[in-house]
Amino acid sequence: MKMLLALSLLLVLGTAFAGAQDLMKGRATLVLESKAAQLTVDLGGGSIADFHLSDQPLNPLSWDSWSPSADPSAPPPPDARSMGHFLCLDRWGPASEAETKNGMGWHGEATRVNWNLLGKTTREGGRLVAAMGTQLPMGGLGVRRSIALGDQQPYFTVTEEVTNQNKLGRLYNMVQHPTIGPPFLDEHTLVDANGSKGFMQHRPMPNPEEPAVYWPQALDRDGQTVNLRHLTDSHDPGVVSYVIDEEYGWTTASSPTTGLLIGYIWKTAEYPWFDAWRHTMNGKPFSRGLEFGTSGLHQPFPILVKKGPIFGRAIYEYLDAGETASKSYACFLFKIPADYQGVTSIRYDGHTLTLHERDGKPERDLVMEVGQLFP
Q1: Would 215 disulfide with which of 91, 195, 234, 324, CB 3.0-4.6 Å?
Q2: Hey, what domains does the chain have and what are their CATH numbers?
Q3: pTM higher than 0.70 for the full model?
Q4: pLDDT digits (tens, 9 = 90+) for 185-209
C-alpha cells in the first residue's frame, strides 16, 4: 500500500462515531499510512483520532468530544477539540476556581490549540516518522511530539517533549487519554491493565484513597463492587486510579465481537498511574478512558499540593524555568479470535511484545516484533 503523508482540508459533514474519513472531514490532519496500518492525527487539538489496520477500517479510538445530539443535522464545529486519544496538559481534571475565571478549562490547553507539522515525514529504522508541536499560551509550555508508525507491524510510538517557557518554575501534570467507543466498544469488550492498588475519585477528601481497591475491582457510590474489565451495567464508580508496580505499565482493550485488540505500553517511571473511566448512554457502553499519566488525583493544583503523594506515588511533577521533560509510549493492534479471553500479562524484552491470554496456552500468545520502543 502506498505510504503517504497528507494534510487534508475537506468540507463535508461528520458524525460522532463515523469512520476516519467522515470524522476528520473539514479539518487539518496528519495521515501516516504503512503496509500494516493507518494513523490519523487531528491538528486541531493534536488528538490521535484514528488508528486502524490496513485491511480492517475499524477504529477503536472513535470517541469524539463533540456530539450532534442537540441537532443531528448540524456539522461538527471547526474548532480545536479532543478526540480519540488526546493529551491532558498542563493538568488532569479541573482548574481552580480562580483559574477557571481566567479561562482555563478541564485537562489543560493541549486540545484547545492548533498543532503544527515540523518538517517532512521521514523513514527511519522501518518506521514512518513525523513531528509536530504547539504552544500552550496560558500554561507557558511548549510541546514537541515525534510520532513513528511501524511499516511492517501495526504499532506506533510517541515521544513528547514538554518545555517550561516561563521565567519561573511550575507544577504540571501530563496524562494520556486514549478513549475507545462503539462499535469497537460493546458489552463484550474486555479491558485489562497491570494496575495494582487503587482508589475511587468520588471518595471524599482528605483521604480519597480509603478504602483502597485492587485492579480490576472498584466500588460504586453505593458501595457495590464493580469489575472494571467489563461495562455491562450502569453501576458507575467514576474515575478509578491505580498505581503500577512493574517496570512497564500497560493496558489493553479486547473486542471479541470485532476481532480486534488495541493496547498501550509505557515506562512506569514516566507514567506511574493508570486511570480508568467508563460511561454508558441509554444503557449501552458509550466510551471508556484507558488513561495513564503523572497523576492519580483528579483535582486542581492547590488540592494536589495539600494532599501530597498517594500510595507513595507523586500526583504532580515540577518543571524548572527552561527545563524540558520527555515521556514516551507505544500503541499496538492485534487481530484476535472470537473466543479471546483478554490479556493477563505483557512482556517486552527490548525487541518483541508478547501478550499472554487469560487462562490461555502459550500457542495463544500474541507476538509482535517492534524493536526499540522507548528512547
Answers
A1: 195
A2: 5-369 (2.70.98.10)
A3: yes
A4: 999 999 999 999 999 999 999 999 9
